[in-house]
Amino acid sequence: MLYPHVIKVISPIHFLTPPIGFLFFFFMLYPQRSFKRWQWLHFLPFLLHFIELIPFYLGPVEAKIHEAELIMQYKSLINYPSDVSYFSPRTLVLLKVISTVAYSFLTAGMLIQFIWKAGRLVYQKNRLLLNWLAASMSIRLVSLYFTLSYVTGGISFNNLNFSYSDLLMNMDAMLNVAFLFVFPSLLDGVSLNSLVLRLNEPARQAEPGEDEVKLAKYQQIAERLEHHFSKERIFLNPDLSQEMVASALSVSPRALSRATVYMYNLSFPDFVNSWRIAYIVENQKVDETWRNYSQELLAEYSGFGSRQSLNNATNRLYQLTSARYFSAQLEK
């Protein structure tokens, strides 16, 4: 009653949070996928409900006060007469609950399926991320139980007063915000198994007659290079150059080139292509969608730019066509 202009402001948001939660989980688990145009359809209910409420938002304050008085009179956010929107408050709540339940179970199923198929190595690499998502999903399902209980009349929230049940129903969002403040790197999503440091640990020892100083120098560059590739995934840039990487690592292009030859027996372009190929292999192992991509799409999404470049790289590095190489990797 003190702030009538906020009446109904949160109503469209109830249609917005379930799809956002689902897409948040989706892109955490599959960060290599891009947002598709058809995915905007997830937000259609929010948009339609928001549009129908615009006349109410821009209307006189008396209409808002009247709406608040009805809520207070009937002591309910669900069972009271209102002509503000096309659907009655009860029907709107039913639609919101259906949306929340559907997206919650879709999200839970997607998470369970990913963990089941990911394998031990991918799980170990992403243990913190996957455990966090599982905990968040558990709280969301508990919150869903309280929401359904309230809507069906199983529990009462002490009329319209705030209660600890309200707090629990918002704990999922609070947990996620707090967790990301502590571990912001989790927003990078799942890291694939090949996109980690590939140098032997402990650090390789100098062989007889090998220059220890040179080994230490190039090993340090290689470690920084792999960390940069793993964290930033700059190898996905088809225009990536040796000069760009050298500048990012604060080394000379010549030192960078010598490091890849010395540590991996690979030229810098071949080193970059080995990461791109590993990226495709790991995506195909954990994401069935990637197994159905054409060679052109695989080349585009991995930074090669063209099918011919991808095929040339697999021929040079593994003496196989790209199609045969990826087929062999999936059979392992």
| Rg from Cα | 27 Å
What is the count of structural domains?
A: 2
Total number of strands: 0
Average pLDDT for all residues: 84
SSE ordering: HHHHHHHHHHHHHHHH
Fold topology:
Elements: H1 13-29, H2 44-58, H3 61-74, H4 89-118, H5 120-125, H6 127-151, H7 164-169, H8 171-182, H9 212-232, H10 242-249, H11 253-264, H12 268-286, H13 288-291, H14 295-302, H15 307-318, H16 322-331
Helix pairs in contact: 1-4, 4-6, 6-8, 9-11, 10-11, 12-15
Name the descriptors:
332 residues, Arc Repressor Mutant, subunit A, 2 domains, HTH araC/xylS-type domain-containing protein, HTH_AraC, membrane, transmembrane, transmembrane helix
